[in-house]
Amino acid sequence: MTWLFDGEVLHRDSLGSEQPIRPGELNLMTAGYGISHSEEGAGRYAGSLEGIQLRLAQPAQIRDAAAMFAHHVDLPRLEVGLTAATVLPAPFTY
């Protein structure tokens, strides 16, 4: 899971995905039985880069499933008073 706050990177993988990711967008990649990938500068942005990248152990039920990649642009936001939250989709289902 890659979620950026500032900057831009380019995701490429062995599935043929080539996807820039920008602040507020989310990339989800499931390794399944195997995937190789890179995340590198997109060549158009020279500022700071801030974000979160999480790696999760997959449950046994899907550990050997096919690899996948998904890019999410319009993530739902919830604002209550001075608090704002972005709702992230689950990286996999059981």
Largest sheet: 4 strands, antiparallel
Gyration radius, in Å: 15 Å
N-end to C-end Cα span:
17 Å
Strand portion: 35-45%
Instruction: Give the uncertain stretches in residue-range form.
Output: none
Overall pLDDT, averaged?
Answer: 84
Helix-strand pattern, N to C? EEEEEEEEE
How many β-strand runs?
A: 9
Largest beta sheet: what is the strand line-up?
6-1-4-7
Structural class: mainly beta
Q: How much helicity do the residues have?
A: under 10%
Task: Explain this structure.
By secondary structure, this protein is mainly β. It is 0% helix and 44% strand. It is built from no helices and nine strands. The chain has strands at 2-6, 9-13, 18-21, 26-30, 37-41, 50-53, 68-72, 77-80, 83-86. It is flat. The protein starts with a strand and ends in an 8-residue tail after the last strand.
